[in-house]
Amino acid sequence: YMGMALSARMVPFKTGFRPFPSEIYRMPFPDEFHGVSLDDTKRALDVLFRSDCPPDQIAAVFFEPVQGEGGYNIATAEFVDYLRELCDEHGIVLVADEIQTGMGRTGKMFAMEHFGIDVDLTCVGKSIGGGLPISGIVGKADIVDAVPPGGLGGTFGGNPLACAAALAVLDVIEADNLLQRGLEMGKVIDARLHRMAQRNSLDCIGDVRALGCMNAIELVKSRDSREADGDLTARVVAIALKKGLILVSAGPARNVIRLLVPLSAPSEVVDEGLDILETALEEAVA
């Protein structure tokens, strides 16, 4: 998933939109819970290179360190290492989409710091603006500086108010030690979600995932089959909303509840939200 741009839409966001640009290829993201291995990804790329598009015709590989709309699936170190080696071998630009994972969300300024791998370009946005619209691309000088003056731009590029907000956000992250705060809060949320999953009455929780303060639970019809339960997820979201908690679902089947708690949120507010989530789950399965 790479946003709502026409060049990157995925199901269900493709519905009702056509045509799309060609020569954008989607590969399986390694996902142990759903039985997708790194070998599956490698085989898919091998088939692509041999039958559809040779590697010297690939400009860039885009990936999310933690999939957002895709269901909060966390990349493994082996997967990231493989992408770096693949791109180095064939002269492909490696791009990390850190729109959701960046700005301290995972306990590091950028999620890629967890992997110790340098990408060529990084997409930033969302949290960096503190609620104001701003996004950007940062990366290696030989790539960024290759664009001539005026080669990239937009009507609202460099908006001074949004840029001032982004600078203020960076100051607050440092002054309030929000990176450490994110790590600590993420552990608290993860522990609470695991306790929920251990309850017999909440065996609808098939998986609990977290990287720093980027947390999620996946709801299933059965832990044995791991069949997605989007209908149950929708009920949980609706019940929680009536109780004053906004939840956002994710994943192709919309059966993942993702938690993106503000890093500045007081602990008692986080606890209150988790209490509402647990109550909503109980009522939804009753």
Characterization of the model:
The chain is α/β, with parallel strands linked by helices. It has 2 domains: 32-175, Aspartate Aminotransferase, domain 2 (3-Layer(aba) Sandwich), CATH 3.40.640.10; 178-285, Aspartate Aminotransferase, domain 1, CATH 3.90.1150.10. The protein is built from 7 helices and 8 strands, in the order H-E-H-E-E-E-H-H-H-E-E-H-E-E-H. It has helices at residues 38-51, 77-90, 141-144, 160-175, 178-197, 230-242, 267-285, and strands at 60-63, 93-97, 121-124, 136-139, 205-211, 214-219, 248-250, 256-259. The chain is globular. The two termini are 34 Å apart. The mean pLDDT is 93.
What key attributes describe this structure?
286 residues; alpha/beta; Aspartate Aminotransferase, domain 2; Aspartate Aminotransferase, domain 1; 2 domains; four-stranded antiparallel beta sheet; 13% strand
Could you estimate the helical fraction of the residues in percent?
25-40%
Tell me the number of helical segments per DSSP (H or I, 4 or more residues long). 7
Query: Average pLDDT across residues?
Result: 93
CATH class of the largest domain: Alpha Beta
Number of domains: 2
CATH fold group of the largest domain: Aspartate Aminotransferase, domain 2
- Helix-strand string: HEHEEEHHHEEHEEH
Instruction: Please tally the β strands and state the result.
Output: 8
* Rg, alpha carbons: 20 Å
Question: Termini distance?
Answer: 34 Å
The main sheet comes to: 4 strands, mixed
CATH superfamily label of the largest domain: Type I PLP-dependent aspartate aminotransferase-like (Major domain)
Structural category is alpha/beta
**Beta-sheet strand percentage?**
5-15%
Given the C-alpha coordinates, what overall shape results? globular
The side-by-side strand order for the widest beta sheet comes to 1-2-3-4
- Low-pLDDT parts are none
